[in-house]
Amino acid sequence: MENLTLDLLQSLPLILLLVMALFLMIAEAIDRKSVVVPYIGIVALLVSAVLEFPFDDKNGDMYRSVAIYNGMLKVRGIASLFHVILCLTGAFALSFVVPYLRKLKEFKDDITGEITVLTIFAVIGMILLANANDLIITFIGLETMSVCLYIMAGSLKTRKESNEAGIKYFLLGAFASAFLLYGIALIYGASGSTNYNKMNMALLQNSPLFFAGTGLILVGFLFKISAFPFHFWAPDVYQGAPTPMVGFMATASKSASFWGLMLFIVAMSTVPKLNTLLQIIAVLTMIWGNFMAIRQTNLKRVLAYSSVAHAGYVLLAMASHSNMGFQAVVFYMIAYTLMNLATFGVISLIEGEKFSTNAKELQGLYYQKPAYAIILSMCMLALSGIPPFIGFIGKYQVFAAAIKADMVVPAIIGIITSVVSAFYYLSVIRRICFIKPDEKYLHTPFVADGLSYTALGILVFAIVVLGCYPSPVLNLVNKLYLYSVAFIG
Amino acid sequence: MFEPSLNLYLVVSAILFSIGMIGVLTRKNAIILFMCVEMMLNAVNLSLVAFSSYMGHSTGQMMVFFVMCVAAAEAVVGLAMLIAIFRNQQNVDLTKINLFKW
């Protein structure tokens, strides 16, 4: 009984989110047009982030991770960093979503409440996935997250694009999670447990069930992070789904899946390694993502392929299978989240009532809205990994880890593809800043409201400042990682 | 009396899973696709239960309940989405949902 009380106390920030989500769901049902629901949602996410924040104390208690609920879930340590990042991502995404929906004539405040509740539930799922210590929690977290995201992708139900994005994401996502589930079943069968700490690793060594199971689980995760053979949903979904929600789905769900995959790989580190497989996938993903992005004419499709390429870089760090590599995974996903949230945030303001992000229509944005054009250009530079921005630090970490793990050839391929990627990022900048707008396609961007301006400002500030001075975050990641991930490389 | 072994259950489950998978990859009607996905999930349930009874503890059986809940939640979302699509374009044929190429 004491155990239960302690567990409940330790997972308080998560329970707070859950209670608030349920409360807001009821509040939303009572007053469908309520304007305060989204703001309460944002505050709840921020409060939960603050409650879980790993402040330093004398003994480093906050840094040591603890398994709670019979070893189902991990809190503290690196888990709390994941919690904070995912909550903040949810809050930022909401501050772009709410003004965006409010400006669509046929929706106004009708669905803002629903989307708020779904975002919070998705964040809960992501936290479960990133903090799981048991394959059951991994599965439930992943599904909670995915189901919410399917709805968000298809939430503009009168628009065919959104419908199509929703159904494609749903069918392919459900298909992929069936694979993940089958993998979990086989690993359970081979090892006698679903818990990372209680699995019988000796049984796993040469078991064919284990190999099949790991492969199937990888399929499920690779789908969620849109790595090479399973990336085909990303461009369509990114293009069709409402832009600020794409920002959320591209960043938070990807980070959570990467961190979930990392926990799985760390837990399996005593059995034959997956490095070679991961390396091959990483190289193919980088090449395919970057080269396909060049051919695209729609900005959101460019970003979809760019996110495929970024998944490749992170997989490369993952494949290095070292402490340095896993820290690079954590840091890169934080950097990626900041950059992509800002990018999709600013695009959601630019695209306006016409929902178009075609290259022709964005042309000469600088002459209409210089501020948006400059922020978008900065995001593009950051994504391509050019020094004063945070993207550079992330890429540096990834390639350093890869080279240190003797993966020189994949690292060189990565650097070459990263140079290729500069081509399409810079061509976006060229189009919006240096070509005069085409009179035929002139359209008026949204006027942002205070909420989205604030969020955008904070994100851009973070991208620049952490790019120049990344050591606080790097140190935090390093300390939390060393205290809490039991991995001997 | 004939006692089916663990392997037999696993084989049946693998066959069911493959049928579902082939269905998803070849059929064009969204509802049939959807049924195939459910079939894959239930094939997994079968192997979970088989493992669980073979090893004599209840983790697997417990997991089956979670899987069923998840499958139900997915069914709700998927069918709602199909209805939204049907309202907009009067069919659920995936070859006709092609604003973007697959």
Give a description of the structure.
The complex is a heterodimer of chains A (489) and B (102). Chain A is mainly α and 489 residues long. Helices cover 74% and strands 1% of the residues of chain A. Chain A has one domain. Chain A starts with a helix and ends in a 5-residue tail after the last helix. Chain B has one domain: Helix Hairpins (Orthogonal Bundle). Chain B has three helices and no strands. Chain B has helices spanning 6-26, 30-55, 59-89. In chain B, helix 1 packs antiparallel against helix 2 (30-55). At the A-B interface, helix 6, helix 7 and helix 10 of A face helix 1, helix 2 and helix 3 of B.
Descriptive tags:
heterodimer, A: 489 residues, two-stranded antiparallel sheet, 21 helices, globular, B: 102 residues, mainly alpha, Helix Hairpins, 76% helix, 0% strand, elongated
Short description:
With 489 residues, chain A is mainly α. Chain A contains 21 helices and two strands.
N/C terminus separation of chain A: 38 Å
> What's the story with the biggest beta sheet of chain B?
none
| Content of β-strand of chain A | under 5%
How widely separated are the two ends of chain B?
Answer: 52 Å
What is the level-2 CATH architecture name of chain B? Orthogonal Bundle
**Element pattern of chain A in H and E:** HHHEEHHHHHHHHHHHHHHHHHH
Query: Uncertain segments of chain B of ≥5 residues (pLDDT<50)?
Result: none
Please give the largest β-sheet of chain A.
2 strands, antiparallel
What is the molecular shape of chain A? globular
Task: Name the average pLDDT of chain B.
Answer: 87
Q: How do the helices and strands follow one another from N- to C-terminus of chain B? A: HHH
Count all strands of chain B and give the number: 0
Quick one: CATH class of chain B?
Answer: Mainly Alpha
Domain count of chain A: the total is 1
**General shape of chain B:** elongated
Number of helices of chain A: 21
